[in-house]
Amino acid sequence: MAAESEHGNCNAWAARDPSGVLSPYSFNRRPVQSSDVALKILYCGVCYADVVWTRNMHHDSKYPVVPGHEIAGVVTQVGADVKGFKVGDHVGVGTYVNSCRDCENCNSSLENHCPKGVYTFNGIDTDGTVTKGGYSTHIVVHERYCFQIPDGYPLAKAAPLLCAGITVYTPMMRHNMNQPGKSLGVIGLGGLGHMAVKFGKAFGLKVTVLSTSESKRHEAISLLGADNFVISSDTQQMESLRNSLHFIVDTASGDHPFDPYLSLLMVGGVMAIVGFPSEIKMHPASLNLGARTLSGSVTGGTKDIQEMVNFCAANKISPEIEIIKIDYINEALTRLVNRDVKYRFVIDIENSFK
């Protein structure tokens, strides 16, 4: 199915130009060093970041691009100094594979904010090579950026936790959005939003989904367990929620107004943005008059990632996924752009490269 197109020890699919079309590719992974873990990739989640960099939307793509930063697999080799992993362990790798390990952020387990952090794909590693992601058969990473997946947790469902899951878990924990009985609004019901709903319910919150699409009402309430569903373009429905929410997690990446959502927060409420709209426009009164906070967040540090994975395993929280083979990836990325997925594509890597 996914035949080699060039020589190398790792088979993959890559985009060669801004068309973003992926096709078979082969390259060499580095040898395992003393602090490294090598893993056979079994599954890789599909994130909108894969669209961004395969299509050069940020004008910094380094072709050929092998995307994928929601990686789950099995350890095949460990370096001589590795203590936390052994061959056969189920593990995951997320959105970054290196950092300086010496700055204030790294020393606080906030490696995701290290100024020298290295993304899992399309990044420049410390040896000057361009990183290549999880649309591939194996990967080698420093043990610090590798995470244990508890036995019994399905690896296919573990993969999206490494980006979609941690991206909403991090701000929820930072802003104490885990207080039973309080109210949470979730803007958008995609790969990130549906995980925010699941975490909110696990924390004992009253969850309201805020969406532009009436078609998502049934799945929000019946499938995901949300308590309420509101069409954000309906001013009457929005007015009924004014000053009623303790928290909001905003997962929408498209441009949207902020004042209507901020007006839903109680005094002292917090709205956390995890998407990337092109700009944020709001009236200062939306914050000032309610002593509200508008906060940003991106992925999570290594300590939070392992904590989140363990929490999901302990509480039987898992993303809703659609498993595909790698030869369907171009169609899948088009569907992702068109928001035609419930709620995360996951590539069956193991069975795609046989």
TrEMBL record:
What's the catalysed reaction? Answer: (E)-coniferol + NADP(+) = (E)-coniferaldehyde + NADPH + H(+); (E)-cinnamyl alcohol + NADP(+) = (E)-cinnamaldehyde + NADPH + H(+); (E)-caffeyl alcohol + NADP(+) = (E)-caffeyl aldehyde + NADPH + H(+); (E)-4-coumaroyl alcohol + NADP(+) = (E)-4-coumaraldehyde + NADPH + H(+)
Record InterPro entries: ADH-like_C, ADH-like_N, ADH_Zn_CS, CAD-like, ER, GroES-like_sf, NAD(P)-bd_dom_sf
Question: Keywords for this entry?
Answer: Lignin biosynthesis, Metal-binding, NADP, Oxidoreductase, Zinc
Tagged with keyword Nuclease: no
Which pathway does the record list?
A: Aromatic compound metabolism; phenylpropanoid biosynthesis
Cofactor(s) needed by this chain: Zn(2+)
* Keyword Ion transport part of the UniProt annotation: no
User: What GO molecular function annotations does the UniProt record carry, in alphabetical order?
Assistant: cinnamyl-alcohol dehydrogenase activity; oxidoreductase activity, acting on the CH-OH group of donors, NAD or NADP as acceptor; zinc ion binding
Bilayer-crossing residues are: none
Every copy of the Enoyl reductase (ER) domain together lies at 20-347
Pfam families (alphabetical): ADH_N, ADH_zinc_N
Query: Which enzyme class, named as a word?
Result: oxidoreductase
Q: Which GO terms describe its biological process?
A: lignin biosynthetic process
Q: Which domain of life is it from?
A: Eukaryota
EC number(s) on file: 1.1.1.195
Q: Which family does it belong to?
A: Belongs to the zinc-containing alcohol dehydrogenase family.
UniProt subunit comment = Homodimer.
- The molecule here is called Probable cinnamyl alcohol dehydrogenase
User: Which species does this protein come from?
Assistant: Sorghum bicolor
